[in-house]
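Lab notebook, bench 4. Continuing the backlog of folding jobs that were queued last week. Each job is logged with the same field layout so the records can be merged later without manual cleanup. Today's entry covers PucR C-terminal helix-turn-helix domain-containing protein, a 367-residue chain. Filled in by technician R.K.

JOB TYPE: sequence-to-structure
TARGET: PucR C-terminal helix-turn-helix domain-containing protein
LENGTH: 367
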Amino acid sequence: MQGLLLRLSALDADAESAVRVISYFDSLVRDHASVSALLQATARLVQCPVGLVDSVTGRRTRVSPGGAAERSGPPPESAAKRSLGSALGVVWMEREGQAHGLDEIVLERFAGAAEVALERAAAQVRVGDDPALVELVLSADTGEAELTRALRLLGFGPAASLWVLATPSDDDRDDGTSAITHLRAGGHHARAARMGDVVAVLVSLGAERLSETVEPLAEIVGRLPGTWRVGIGPSARGAAVAESWAGARIALRFTGPHPADRVVNWADLGALALFAAHVPQEAIAGLADVRAVEELSRRPYGAEAMEAVRALCAEGSVRRAAVAVHLHHSSLAARIARAEAVLGFSLADSAGRLRAHLALQLVRLRP
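JOB STATUS: finished
OUTPUT FIELD FOLLOWS
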């Protein structure tokens, strides 16, 4: 029955074959087949392309018997079509030549199973459990109408200011659940999806913060438990959400294990973002200052020397830097001197501190 039922040239539309078709689709519904799994199973069964129009998202998907899925235009005029209940969409079947005796019942059962799959998907969305919609929103290829529908289904208003957060998904914990729980506890709306080795979190701030900038969001994210690293994209609306996602991924590359580096705003990177977007990693690795910072970090005293350099770059003077790291200024000056010996340049003037600051930032882009 799996892919052979309608390939048999002698197959007649008798009662036994009809029952087998019904059983085939009933098993797909019983196994909670997704929309994509349903399309692939149907195409294998009928051995011709099939498709579905999802009226909610506006997406049209066509699947060949081999299982390849593609975005599609409207169903062909010659295709056999069946509308779904509740205006959910349309399914179609592209049979070349003469129709098979069971095509009508296949199309009927295909449509019924598609209704169930789409309704289940909508129910998952209502509880925030549909990463496919988040992926759709973050794609630069999504059309305006499709994007608007997806945002609405995810619970975001058409004029809402949105931010995208990016955090590593390097273990089972990092599925976005903790981030969403934390954000929602603060009255903010959030949805998440795992995108390869990164979790994307789409956020709309609560009503009391709608007039504020991204800085409050950085404070909120900074209170995430544990050692989360998060890149924050720029504020965006509509189609610009894809740009916020790109910015969040760039910002994530500049994060690090140091508490001050756990949360990075794309908006704070300025020209540094160009290095991540346009300068090859090999070129960054070849910079003498970057190599010197890496060498400093490997020294026995590297951690304290790096902390001293970081504080000096941030504060601009040894005395202020010493206060920031709770050291006597003479102790900090000694650490700076050891760092200068490895770096190969002085940190006494602004030019030297700029070199050090840039090297500290660029070393995070190393693989």
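OBSERVATION: The CA atoms of residues 3 and 40 lie 10 Å apart.
SIGNED: R.K.
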